[in-house]
Amino acid sequence: MKTGFHIGRILGIDVRIDWSWLLIFLLIAWNLAVVFGTAHPDWGTGLRWGLAIVAALLFFISVLAHEMAHSLVARANGIPVRGITLFLFGGVSSIERDPRSALSEFVMAIVGPLTSIIVGGILVGIAEIGNTALRGNLTISTEIIARLDPAFTLLLWLGSINVILGVFNMVPGFPLDGGRVLRSILWAVSGSFRKATRWASWVGQGIAWLMIAGGIAMSFGAEIPYFGTGLLSGLWLAFIGWFLQNAAVQSYQQVVVHDLLGGIQVRRMMRADPPTCEPGCTVSMLVNDHIMGKDDHAFPILDNDRLVGLVTLDDVRKVSRDHWDSTLVRQIMTPADRLVIVSPDDDSAEALTKLSQGDFNQLPVVENGRLVGLLRRRDIIRWLQLQSVEVR
């Protein structure tokens, strides 16, 4: 389910901001305001907070540039890109399928970190050229910031954080960019995408558990180079490790599922005789004649054997019980031109991708303009369960 809000399209790619992004934006702005205030006690509140907010915004524009690099390379390789979402941990490109070759995977993965490092290097270089206090001293410590005016403070911080972002993403912790680079190399060596994903996932999980252990140790006073020490920093590192561990496991499971479904036609999994209803049917008739006593959650609406829409239990729940007798199904259904449909000869893996992308529970199966079945998410899950294949 999509959350947050859409902010526009860049080079034909939709960009969204998840609500969780607001939290990390406020945390970064607050932290920078404190750092700037400590380094420059003579700066007023407005200047500190204004510079902190501008820096946080520019940082997320940098993250967007990082993700745009991934997306543009993916599109150049013929892979559709649904959009980019900025969220709690930075950003993610919604790329519809995995690359077809190890080389494509390598280029797609590495271009993001390279973009961040190049952007960061340029900004730090500009700051170093323009301010002699920075030459040979490119840290972002409070002591260095104290010697800079607002413009060079912004350049140094933004440049350094981009370099850090690029380097961190090259950590071989799948599914980080570095983990995908590792997978591309393993893929090229082994010749198996599934094996490469499994091995990269193991490495990613190992790094994630190290991050979790390190974060817990930091919370109890241990000092780790680069990460430092302290309860808040430790909990944050452990949280990132936990997120990475789950992402590594889920990424491999998705590959296994799509591997199992690849080449299996939709007709083998669809329900061939779904209960249907006419558009002139009332909600009360739909409930009494179709919903009660059955386990179906969606009902295709047919007009002279032509699919005109789909109504679900959620649609029914939105209608007051008092209006069931006077409300027609055509008034609450999703029209056919807004439905995502599949063909009975389509690949089940692609159908599952469509289900996941739209957060649907079912897809009408249409052949030559005629409804021939309904593919439900639970049908796919049941088929996978019947395979009794252990994910390993």
Structure, described:
The protein has 13 helices and nine strands. It has 392 residues and is an alpha+beta fold. The protein folds into three domains: 166 residues, no CATH class; 71 residues; 122 residues, Roll (CBS-domain). A four-stranded mixed β-sheet has the order 1-2-3-4. Strands 5-6-7 form a three-stranded antiparallel β-sheet. It has a two-stranded antiparallel ribbon with strand order 8-9. A hairpin with a 2-residue loop joins strand 5 and strand 6. Helix 1 packs across helix 2 and helix 8 packs antiparallel against helix 12. The radius of gyration is 26 Å and the shape is elongated.
Q: In brief, what are we looking at here?
A:
With 392 residues, this protein is α+β, with helices and mostly antiparallel strands.
Task: Describe how the helices and strands are arranged.
Elements: E1 5-10, E2 13-17, H1 19-39, H2 45-76, E3 81-87, E4 90-95, H3 102-130, H4 142-145, H5 150-169, H6 177-190, H7 193-219, H8 231-261, H9 283-291, E5 298-303, E6 306-312, H10 313-317, H11 329-332, E7 334-335, H12 348-358, E8 362-367, E9 370-376, H13 377-387
Parallel strand pairs: 2-3
Antiparallel strand pairs: 1-2, 3-4, 5-6, 6-7, 8-9
Helix pairs in contact: 1-2, 2-3, 2-5, 3-5, 3-6, 6-7, 7-8, 8-12
- Average pLDDT number: 84
Number of strands: 9
In angstroms, what is the radius of gyration?
26 Å
Low confidence ranges: none
- Whole-number tally of structural domains: 3
Class per helix and strand makeup: alpha+beta
| Tertiary shape | elongated
Give the helix proportion (percent range). Answer: 55-70%
Strand content: 5-15%
| Spatial strand order of the main sheet | 1-2-3-4
Distance between the terminal alpha carbons, to the nearest Å?
29 Å
In DSSP terms, counting alpha (H) and pi (I) runs of 4 or more, how many helices? 13
Order of helices and strands: EEHHEEHHHHHHHEEHHEHEEH
Reported for the largest beta sheet, the result is:
4 strands, mixed
